[in-house]
Amino acid sequence: MSIALLSVFDLVGVFVFALAGASAGVAKRLDIFGVVVVGAASAIGGGLLRDVLIGQTPPFVLRDWRYLVVSTAASVMVFYFHPQVSRLRRVVLLSDAAGLGLFVVTGTAKALDAGVPAVGATVIGVLTGIGGGVIRDLLTGEIPVVLRREIYALAALLGAGTVVIADGLGIAGPASAAVGAAGVFGIRVLALVRRWSAPTPRDVPTT
Amino acid sequence: MSIALLSVFDLVGVFVFALAGASAGVAKRLDIFGVVVVGAASAIGGGLLRDVLIGQTPPFVLRDWRYLVVSTAASVMVFYFHPQVSRLRRVVLLSDAAGLGLFVVTGTAKALDAGVPAVGATVIGVLTGIGGGVIRDLLTGEIPVVLRREIYALAALLGAGTVVIADGLGIAGPASAAVGAAGVFGIRVLALVRRWSAPTPRDVPTT
Amino acid sequence: MSIALLSVFDLVGVFVFALAGASAGVAKRLDIFGVVVVGAASAIGGGLLRDVLIGQTPPFVLRDWRYLVVSTAASVMVFYFHPQVSRLRRVVLLSDAAGLGLFVVTGTAKALDAGVPAVGATVIGVLTGIGGGVIRDLLTGEIPVVLRREIYALAALLGAGTVVIADGLGIAGPASAAVGAAGVFGIRVLALVRRWSAPTPRDVPTT
Fold first, then answer.
1. C48, C54, C123, C145: best mutation site toward chain B, by most B Cβ within 10 Å?
2. What is the pTM of this model?
C-alpha cells in the first residue's frame, strides 16, 4: 500500500471509530459537546496512547489537523442524524472491523520502527486498535466491550502477531500489512456473522 | 501578566480543583488517603496529561513541590471541614471557573511553544482544563460531568481558540491570555447563573 | 539486593498483580481474552505509568518480554483454575503486599535517578505501586479499592518516603530499599490482620 492510500485508510478508521464513540455518547444522552468529546476520544485515543508509549510526542494525531476535523465532523453527524446512523448499524460494524485491522497493523509497525521488541510491539499494536474503544467505554461508564465478548482482543492480537512475524522473517512490507489487516477484518466479520465468542469462566455465580 | 502572577494563579487553580476533587471523594465516603489521592489527581491531572502529550517529562507539576503540597492541604481541609466547604459551594464554583480559564490558556500556550500546530494545541489546552475533572469522575465512578452539561467543554474550547488565534495573528501575550481566561470564566459564570445548557440529542429513549 | 534478585522480585510482583487482576476479571465474567487483558494491565500498568512520567519510552515492561509472558501465564492460570486460586486468597494478599512494597521502592528510586525532585518522586513511586490496581478497578467498573480502604495508599506513601529520605541523607542503596519494601509489606499485613482502616469522613449521609 502506498503512503497516500494508508493515510486515506487511517482517516476512514478515525471516521468510523468516531461514529461508534459518538453513538455511545448519544445513547447516554450527553449534550453535543460531550458527544464530540467522546467521539473524538474514541477516534484518536488509540493513536495518542501509541505515540506516548513509543515516545513520539507530540502525538501524530495532534500534529495533523485532519484527524480532529474528521472525528469532530463524524460526531456532529451522529448527534443530528443518529436515528439514521443506527439504521446503518451493519455498515458501522463492518467499518469498525476495518478500522481495527488498520490501526492494529500501523500501530505494530510504528512500534517496531521505534525499536520496541516483538512482544512489546504486539502489545502496542493491540492497544492502538482497542485503546479508543476502551476510552469510550470508560467515559460512558461501561465495562469495556473489548473485555467482554466477540473475539475482539484475539483478532487484534493475531493482526499484530502477523506484522511482528513478518518483521522477524524480514518480509515486512505492504503485503504483510495488508494480510494482517485483512485477517483482523475477516475474523471480526466471521465472529459477528456466526456469533462466535471466546470461552467464559466456569462456575462463577451470577451476581 | 508577569510570570510570578501566573504562577500564583496556577496554584490557586490547583487549590480549587483539589477542593472540588476532594469533595467528590468525601461524597463517596472514601477514607482520608483516598480523599487526598482524588483531590491531588483532580488538581494535577490536567497538567500531567499536558506535559506527557507535549513530551516534557518529568511533568512540571511533579518537579515543583508546591503543587502537591497545595493540593494535599486543600484535600485534607475538605476531609475535616467538608460541611463548611459545601456551604461555600458558590465560592468553589466561581474558583473552578477561574481555574478552568487559567489552565486552558496556559495549556494551549505551552503546546504552541512546544511546536504543536493550532488544532492539536487547542485539544491539548482543552484537555489541560478538563483532564483533572475527568480523572476525578472516573475515579469516583461517575460519567464525567464535563460530558454531560453546562457548556463546560465549549467554554474551554473558546478559551483555547482565543490563544491559538492570537498566536496566528502574532499578537499572543499577556493580554490575549487574560482575554482568553476571562472569556472562559465569563461563559462558565453565565452558564451557571442562567442555567444554560447545550442541546441534547432528540429521540433517545430514556433508559 | 543484587540486580538479579531485584529482577526476580519484580517478576514475582508482576505475577501476583496479574493474579489479582485476572481474578477481578473472572468475577466480572469476562471471556478469556478479557481476563488476560485485565490481568496484564494490572501487572504492568504501574510500570507503564512510571516510565511514561519519567520520559523513559518505550516503557521497560514493553522492552523485556518476560513481563508480558509472566502476566499472561498468571491470567490464563486464574481463568482455568480460579476456584483453587480463590482458596489461595491469603497467599495472594500476602504476595500483593510484597509486590506493592517492591514496586513502590523501585518506582521511587527510578524517578530519583531520572532527576525528579523528592516530592514528585514520592508521587511517582506511589503511582507505580497503586497504578495497576487502579487500572484494574477502572476496567472492571469499580471505584478503585486503594481509594476506599485498608491503609493501602498510606503504606505506599511511607515506602516511597523512606527511599526519598535515604536518598536525601546520601544513604540510598540496597539496605534502604529493603527497609522501605519491608515497611510497606509489614504495614499492609498488619492492616489486614488487625483490620485497621483509615478515618472516613464524618456526617456524610449514606446514599
1. C123
2. 0.83
